[in-house]
């Protein structure tokens, strides 16, 4: 039971990878740039967490679903995976909405063109 949360995070991360691959949203668009952005995002949030831990704002807490593996004082392994998931999810959502809006613009432009041709 100690790996339940980590397993849920990894499964969710895997689902994001499948969505990304299917719709070419982030890593399948430009892998080098995506890796750079993801690493920077995770680094910023990790620094944020470590500052919060240093000031006593964040604490790990004890949960029966966590692994108990700690990368730094009060910084569990699951937190790093969660931060990766959070950054990746954000980028998939950003590029997903961008793709939806672009498709909507294409459909609207096609409808306008069809109306002009009918006249």
Folded structure, characterized:
A two-stranded antiparallel ribbon has the order 1-2. With 119 residues, it is mainly alpha-helical. The mean pLDDT is 92. Helix 2 packs across helix 3. It contains three helices and two strands, in the order ααββα.
TL;DR?
The protein has 119 residues and is mostly helical. 72% of the residues lie in helices and 4% in strands. Helix 1 packs parallel to helix 3.
Strand and helix map with partners:
Elements: H1 4-23, H2 31-54, E1 70-72, E2 75-76, H3 77-118
Antiparallel strand pairs: 1-2
Residue windows where pLDDT falls under 50 for at least 5 positions: none
Distance between the termini: 67 Å
The secondary-structure class comes to: mainly alpha
Number of helices: 3
Count of domain modules: 1
Please state the CA-atom Rg, rounded to the nearest Å. 20 Å
Q: Tell me the helix content.
A: over 70%
Principal-axes geometry comes out as elongated
Strand order of the largest sheet: 1-2
Number of strands: 2
**Strand percentage:** under 5%
- What does the largest sheet look like? 2 strands, antiparallel
**How would you state the average pLDDT, rounded?**
92
Order of helices and strands: HHEEH
């Amino acid at each position: 039971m100690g790996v339940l949360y980590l397993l849920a995070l990894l499964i969710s991360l895997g689902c994001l990878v499948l969505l990304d691959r299917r719709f070419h949203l982030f890593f399948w668009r430009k892998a080098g740039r995506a890796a750079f952005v993801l690493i920077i995002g995770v680094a910023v949030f990790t620094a944020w967490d470590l500052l919060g831990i240093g000031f006593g704002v964040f604490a790990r807490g004890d949960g029966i679903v966590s692994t108990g593996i700690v990368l730094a004082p009060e910084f569990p392994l699951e937190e790093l995976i969660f931060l990766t998931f959070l950054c990746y999810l954000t980028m998939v959502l950003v590029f997903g909405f961008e793709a939806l809006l672009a498709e909507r613009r294409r459909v609207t432009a096609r409808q306008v063109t069809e109306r002009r041709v009918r006249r």
